[in-house]
Amino acid sequence: xxxxxxxxxxxxxxxxxxxxxxxxxxxxxxxxxxxxxxxxxxxxxxxxxxxxxxxxxxxxxxxxxxxxxxxxxxxxxxxxxxxxxxxxxxxxxxxxxxxxxxxxxxxxxxxxxxxxxxxxxxxxxxxxxxxxxxxxxxxxxxxxxxxxxxxxxxxxxxxxxxxxxxxxxxxxxxxxxxxxxxxxxxxxxxxxxxxxxxxxxxxxxxxxxxxxxxxxxxxxxxxxxxxxxxxxxxxxxxxxxxxxxxxxxxxxxxxxxxxxxxxxxxxxxxxxxxxxxxxxxxxxxxxxxxxxxxxxxxxxxxxxxxxxxxxxxxxxxxxxx
Length: 321
What we know:
The protein is an all-alpha fold.
């Protein structure tokens, strides 16, 4: 998401780096062959990549804005989300996929958009509900932030455990991001960059029963992975590579929206690449690269054709490299 990642007047580039890593992992394991061939790796990555994304999203979501500005932000998450969710649901009714739908109707489409999304766009649905809840609770007057946070926890609990509109674990990670922003303020203090976190991280990862985002062990993996990535960020990367990684991290929304188109198309050349490399690593690198480049190409074209105001709510969605 293109939300300002700042502390005061300075952008926190570490968060762009985190988002880049998480979005690339999301694309990689949306490749069905990779997920099926490396199920343990997929289980591990699913333990931390979207929880990490939600945690960062909770930290970044800006509630110090007017109702109209927050409404504008949520609306222009909802519109591209709804368009892509409708497209995915229609395809699920036509193709023999795992989430195949037998009877397509207007009621079913509305259900998938507003209540129970299918496919890869659930994150945006969760972000809309959590972001709206966050703003509502923190607009309550004459309450300290701790009271507002408690109110938010209750509301997210109702939406998840009571109404079934959210995964309670996903809502909890968003809440943790909010809590860090309101209490610690600086994300880097909550997740200090330490190389030695790899030791407890490896120890936890040796037992795949820990690969559950809703468990204490899973939450510990999320924490340790983020701390390790914060340390890796300060490695002396080749300068153009660093700029590319940060560019990807600043532009994750197009990748969330359009990369599934390319991961589905990857099936068309999968067999050929597997003949060249049976491990699937060549297929992985080429497919992720095409998904990233293709998603950005679609967004660039929408910017140039002046379609972005109708889809993203802004004249230009793609930031400069």
